[in-house]
Amino acid sequence: MLNPDIVREATRLTRAGQLVEATALLQRMLRGASAPAAPPASPARTTPARLEPPTIDAKATRLAERARQPEPSAATQAKPAQAKSAHTKSAHSRRQSRAGTADIASLGLRGPIRRAPAMRDIAPEGTQFVEGHFSNAAGHRSYKLFKPHRCQEQALPLIVMLHGCTQSADDFAAGTRMNFLADAQNCFVIYPEQPRGANQAKCWNWFRSDDQQRDGGEPSLIAGITRQIMREYAIDPTRVYVCGLSAGGAAAAVMAATYPDLYAAVGVHSGLACGAARDLPSALIAMRQGGGSDLMAAKSAVPTIIFHGDRDTTVHPDNGDRIFAQSTGATRGRTSVRGQVPGGHAYTRTMLADPSGQVTSEHWTIHGAGHAWSGGSPAGSYTDPKGPDATGEMLRFFLSHSLRP
Questions:
Q1: Of 200, 244, 243, whose CA–CA distance to 104 is shortest?
Q2: Is the pLDDT of residue 34 over 60?
Q3: Reduced to 3 states, what is the DSSP secondary structure of residue 204?
Q4: What Rg, from alpha-carbon coordinates, does the chain have?
Q5: What is the pTM of this model?
Q6: Is 161 helix (H, G, I), strand (E, B) or coil?
Q7: CA angle 367-241-354, nearest 5°?
Q8: Which of 357, 300, 364 is nearest to 331 (CA)?
């Protein structure tokens, strides 16, 4: 049960730069504890605290405040007291940092775990995986571009891959093995990278209102990278697709909602719907309980394929259901089939079709799976090799759809 008074207080704390306290308050609410009384109003600060983009779905890096230096004094006998004061403040800061990390980790959030993968795990031998850069009024982003063997033959499809928190382009490419399948199907693949300067855990900021708008914020950067590749290479403009994992999956949903004229289909793995949150408090609630219906956007016009484990403790499985409920258009019926990966997970695949019979939406519920790319390679982080093969199924789904001229 959501307590609006607690949500308002958490929002106030977030805006004041008190991320640790806001997270702890939301955690107590989600566990059913009552909120402490709101503190009395304090005098306004002359310089407001700078609020960094918060970490969502990864263990927080340290939030410790820098210990203040002791005031200079001519009295030598004051030095021991000053040193003790500085030590006490530093210890308090470290304790606050650990408490904040524990609060966020207790919500089921994950942290970085791996070394960089080898090139043999990232792309087939003889292909190219090159770095590029893009800038606009919203900022600057680097990216990695995969070029298939036969990239000069004709206008080819393009797939935009948005990594999860703490991941890199190399890590995400190795874990999903998208480059290997794309080479076989003759597709370009682009991996925009989120820098730590934009989010301390490299999460896409899917939950901020400014980053849910067309031609602004991070959507303008991702769309700008997409269009830059379309200008520089032979890309079929009717076969451009976007997908992502976790925070990247939520960002992919934002891209489909804000640029339905650019992307022919979207894949969301363990993510959230566009509009599931507008700030940090609502993001934490959506991740724990599923996005509230009052925050949800209108139905998507972009064909959608969804993968979500039913034991995901980082992003609640209800979020996959909500994305499916928003997915495209007039349907002539719903079909569900169950399957089993030999030696791996069982799954339920639910499909919606348009009046012509073409499947416009698929929802794969992976039974017993957690917060990881289904069927992925252990060469990358956040993967579950027990399948089913999300990469292969997404690519199949994508290539069955194209934008109408």
A1: 200
A2: no
A3: coil
A4: 23
A5: 0.78
A6: strand
A7: 70
A8: 357
